[in-house]
Design brief:
This protein is an alpha+beta fold and 210 residues long. It has 4 helices and 7 strands, in the order H-H-E-E-E-E-E-E-E-H-H. Among the domains are: 36 residues, no CATH class; 100 residues, no CATH class.
Length: 210
């Protein structure tokens, strides 16, 4: 088993490094013109994947939405950071969105926000997870969210989950056997993030309605 794990890890890293090399050799595309509808993955009145709602969830028609865009920021790095680098090197390469602009994280202390209770730190049981969205192949129909798949625990600045193997379908890729669920950040807490987004939009509208 250790030999197989080591081999699988080597294959995954080789694929990642090859992808990084190809990306580095590719010319940069022209800057998008956001004044053109074609520059947007989703646009009002044009059907797109953004209109897709998983079975069991219904927010009404797209033209009845209360916000055009709600952006949840992913991990951002100042420079290339490959798998296998130390936490320290990752720490010094990250950017944060702060006070209206990207800023180097410098030595700011990272924090862990629990996406089930929306508190800094702490632990939430699986019962608080209202629905995790399994990944599907491109073009396939979305599957219903799975309630109570896993809880979430902040351990230092990292978030830990425990997904039962019997329920891991739709939450597995090359790196999950080694403890990394980064590609499923949104999926695992999909319904809770969705509800939190709706609550934030409602709060903003209430605060800005004269």
């Amino acid at each position: 088993m250790p030999a197989l794990r080591s081999l699988a890890s080597g294959v995954a890293l080789a694929m990642m490094h090859a992808g990084c090399a190809r990306a580095a050799d590719s010319p940069s595309p022209p800057a998008p013109d956001y004044g053109q509808a074609a520059a947007w993955a989703a646009w009002p009145g044009r059907a797109s994947g953004a209109d897709t709602v998983p079975p069991g969830l219904d927010d009404g028609l797209p033209d009845a939405q209360k916000a055009d865009i709600f952006f949840i920021h992913p991990t951002t790095y100042l420079s290339g950071v490959r798998s296998g680098t130390t936490d320290s090197s990752r720490q010094h390469s990250r950017l944060v969105w702060l006070e209206g602009s990207y800023q180097h994280i410098d030595r700011r202390k990272p924090v862990c926000v629990n996406p089930l209770y929306w508190t800094v730190g702490g632990e939430a049981p699986a019962a608080a997870n209202l629905g995790s969205l399994p990944a599907v192949r491109a073009g396939a129909d979305l599957r219903p969210p799975i309630p109570h798949l896993t809880g979430a625990r902040c351990q230092g600045a990292a978030l830990e989950v425990a997904i039962p193997w019997s329920k891991s379908g739709g939450f597995v890729d090359l790196l999950t056997p080694f403890g990394s669920y980064h590609i499923f950040d949104y999926n695992i807490f999909y319904t809770n993030i969705r509800i939190n987004a709706q609550q934030r939009v409602a709060a903003w509208r209430a605060a800005h309605t004269s």
